[in-house]
Amino acid sequence: MSQHLKNWKFEKSKYMDIFRDPNSSYITEMVNDSFKSPDVSLLGFPYDGGILSHRRGARLAPDFIRKSFYNFTNYCSTHETELSGLKVKDFGNLDLNGEGSHIYDLIQSDVERLYKFGKVEIILGGDHSITLPSFKGLRRSVGNGNRNVNLVVIDQHYDVRDYNFVNSGSWLRHLLLDKNDKPDSTVILGSHGFRYPGYYAEFLKDKGVKTVSGHYIHTYGIRETVKEVANILGGRGHTYLSVDIDAVDQAFAPACSGSSPGGLMPYELLELVRELVKNLNLDGVDITEYSPPFDIGDITQKLAASVIMEVLCGVKSKNGVK
Ligand SMILES: [Mn+2]
């Protein structure tokens, strides 16, 4: 069995001591390996073998996200949310060597195995192809053969290209065609731009997948968007939320393998994630496609880490965890 490596450790920099405010509480105080039943578990899948372009690097993302994440305080002033009391367990990164379909089997069994430890699994990718095995692992844990498990994807792209092998542009096609593990309902949020042929919009219609474009989100706002998603899902079942950071405009998320102009604003993504977590019966979330080598001034790193913070805020607000 493949093991999680605790190959990432929070290390206090000497500057943290100098600037450390005795009135600050950091996220590190909520993360503890000894939690037997954490509210949230954190898993890293450092894999980017599914990216076909030259812009690889997403395998480095889990630890880069942690670098920002572990420097945040546990208070959100946007919504005046206090996070202390939430129990987070970081399982580290899965030991993934090489490339190929066996990697997806390892990820799937890992998600399935570790689900029982946390009420919500947060998965740090990795390129977007890791969502295929992660969803399947969660479905098998949660779905138990007869429960509905839905998929909500925030992404610039549709990811249903007609490849007979799994990659970051075809993983959703493979999932939708999977007889045993396809989602009961699927919604794609934030699509925009000129990077996808209309041919694939027809495929989505044929498979019953609903899309809520970036234009709709800009025009009608987060509340209407979340209502629309809830309507589409019909209030049924468990949900897995997959976030591809390239849904955000390239000016604010330059470190992706396929970013474009005309995307969501960072605030829209963060609000959308928080509200979805609060309003859906959520069991898993992933963040994918952040590729550290292409970042500028840690912009994308901090945004990806902020997405995780918003998930925690959504869980806290929903559970009323004390
Ligand atoms: Mn994408």
Explain what this protein looks like in three dimensions.
- The protein has helices spanning 14-19, 61-69, 101-114, 131-143, 171-176, 199-206, 214-233, 266-279, 299-319; strands at residues 4-5, 40-45, 75-76, 81-82, 88-94, 120-125, 149-154, 186-189, 210-212, 238-244, 282-288.
- The chain is of the alpha/beta class and 322 residues long.
- The strands form two sheets. It has a nine-stranded mixed beta sheet with strand order 1-5-2-6-11-10-7-8-9, with helices on both faces.
- It binds manganese (II) ion.
- Manganese (II) ion is lined by residues 128, 155-157, 244, 246, 258, 289.
Q: How would you sum up this structure in a few lines?
A:
This protein is α/β, with parallel strands linked by helices and 322 residues long. Helix content is 34%, strand content 16%.
